[in-house]
Task: inverse folding
């Protein structure tokens, strides 16, 4: 049974598969429909077999801006197959689901499905123009390795998991120590999603291959150390959860990866960044421990004005300015958290804490966070 | 666009989540329903919000035998929520989907979703009785690491991926070389699924902790080297695909892992096994190259009577008997491939090739393959 506050292991996955018919061996494929189908011009056709449905719509937060609509109706055709063609869409990665008479449905034909804490969704990719691949697109360059570790947390006493990216060539030079980025996910995700959806490894591979980023190790821990009781608005649990997160990160994750990998342990060789919930965590742990992290990135999420970390920062901004090499903040103009981030920018300015603040196109979405990682990595460890 | 016969890059993943409400930050959870809900006695309740549906049924191949039914109807209750309680079910891992008025649906409430080439499904786990966990259940023992590699294949020229399990303690003894099992997936899956669904790493962790298996490295490559043209029944493409698979395995995968890991390169330190399609591949590459692999396992899948590998074996069975330390075959009594496997057993007996043949309860399913791996690993490298 599942109960709030109890930790149980769960499993979810994403697959991006080899294309083509798989009908020649074993059981028949689940659906013979091709969906989604990406055209060379960036148009995408979605199809669903739902003979008894009265209404089928396509929902996609990521496509919303390009399509200028929150949802797009499909039309019923022959044999009970509903379909719609949208676009052309700009190059990028788009997640989507169907809504069939009020039921949210993951496209059963999609070979590309991922799950997170919000449920599962299909996704579809529009490649960059020939010769100009996206920064988050797989290219024919040397690839790093992503390793999955399981450990028992000092903070919680239970099994947790983390992902580690090591760059191409890692392990070839016995004495080389790599700088390390601790990269934190958002509240809907876990430690796998910066790889699965965020393409952190692909972005790093591409930037390293182009000489735009320093070869580095990226540690992607699980940010959900403790569940917040449902509906809990009191600040105490929030601070307790953050304390548990920092204990897990600093007392379990950091020692584990420093024991298993040849990585730097000085602040100048350590960065911490995150998106949304992970942005708040990165800002708190980074600004709260400038002797441990000299590079801090906050993608979308902010800190509340009454956050104790900001109070400590206000009492001694010189300490942060001496130690921090980069405090990099960015948020999309359509992000629901825009005001909070602007307030943080204003508070840091008022304290005189050196930082960069970027407002970009986009909302609270992975398309924005991939772009931020691609802008942040080249700034690190220089 | 997706076209039969064209290979595109593949990716898959696993997430290990904290359970409980996630409604306190950012967007609302996709569904407030708890589904599936496992009771302490092994009963499971499934729920789906589908106010306009006329008929909702639960489909689960894995539950079918226990429930004595291929599908189970849900009943409509208050607020358009359909539900059904089934079981008690024996300890195990069960995959399932819903069928809503003819549309196959992955449970949107399930935190545990995986996708493969057949589409996505939810899954649910019934733990073993207190103090007697299943062999494929996470336990508080030292855990190995699973690493994901991407490489360009000599056989295909395109990017492919593989997973590698290293046992607890790997890397602590600088000069130790580990024996290695090459473990192949079935036609519906890819290189991630022995970890995601097959729990190969968990099974190995548990058997190693109990001293029942020798610490080993497990290499899980992608078996889909080339797509078979749809409807192609000619034998020529089948042999070409197998040749491409063997070229990829022996000329790309083996050199990659022997360069990246401290593993044995002698036949006595190398095993190959697989399930279904991967069983046929393992039997072909193992029996065809006894100077490279001394331990061979075939779970469910067989070789056709006219297979060239069997013809070569027939011409010199003494060579196989001298070199093979174990040829281990198993299949479930309800497997659709039972006759083919019995024929293989008979052919090997007739040739005088030493082997073990096991017929077990079960069908062509992951529950059986996890059990076979748990029986096969303790036999290796002794």
Result:
């Amino acid at each position: 049974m599942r109960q709030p506050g109890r930790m149980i292991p769960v499993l979810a996955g994403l697959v991006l598969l080899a294309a083509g018919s798989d009908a020649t061996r074993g059981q028949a494929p689940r659906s013979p429909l091709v969906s989604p189908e990406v055209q060379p011009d960036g148009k995408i056709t979605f199809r669903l077999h739902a003979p008894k449905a009265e209404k089928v719509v396509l929902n996609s937060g990521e496509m919303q801006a390009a399509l200028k609509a929150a949802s797009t109706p499909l039309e019923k055709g022959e044999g009970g197959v509903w379909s719609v063609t949208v676009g052309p869409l700009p190059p990028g990665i788009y997640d989507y689901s169907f809504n069939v008479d009020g039921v949210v449905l993951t496209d059963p034909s999609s070979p590309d499905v991922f799950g997170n804490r919000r449920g599962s969704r299909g996704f579809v990719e529009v490649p960059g123009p020939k010769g100009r691949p996206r920064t988050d697109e797989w290219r024919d360059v040397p690839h790093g390795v992503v390793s999955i570790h399981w450990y028992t947390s000092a903070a919680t006493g239970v099994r947790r998991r983390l992902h580690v990216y090591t760059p191409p060539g890692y392990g070839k030079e016995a004495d080389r120590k790599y700088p390390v980025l601790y990269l934190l996910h958002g509240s809907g995700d876990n430690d796998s999603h910066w790889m699965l959806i965020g393409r952190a490894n692909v972005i790093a591979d591409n930037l390293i291959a182009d000489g735009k980023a320093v070869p580095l190790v990226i540690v992607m821990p699980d940010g959900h150390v403790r569940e917040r009781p449902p509906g809990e608005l009191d600040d105490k649990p929030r601070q307790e959860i953050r304390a548990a997160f920092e204990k897990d990160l600093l007392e379990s994750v950091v020692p584990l990866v420093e024991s298993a990998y040849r990585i730097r342990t000085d602040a100048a060789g350590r960065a911490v960044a995150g998106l949304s919930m992970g942005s708040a965590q990165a800002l708190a742990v980074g600004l709260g421990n400038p002797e441990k992290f000299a590079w801090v990135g906050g993608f979308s999420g902010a800190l509340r004005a009454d956050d104790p970390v900001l109070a400590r920062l206000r009492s001694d901004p010189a300490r942060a300015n001496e130690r921090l090499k980069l405090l990099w903040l960015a948020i999309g103009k359509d992000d629901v958290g825009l005001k909070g981030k602007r307030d943080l920018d204003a508070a840091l300015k008022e304290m005189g804490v050196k930082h960069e603040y970027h407002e970009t196109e986009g909302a609270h979405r992975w398309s924005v966070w991939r772009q931020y990682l691609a802008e942040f990595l080249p700034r690190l460890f220089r």
Summary: The first helix of chain B runs from residue 61 to 67.
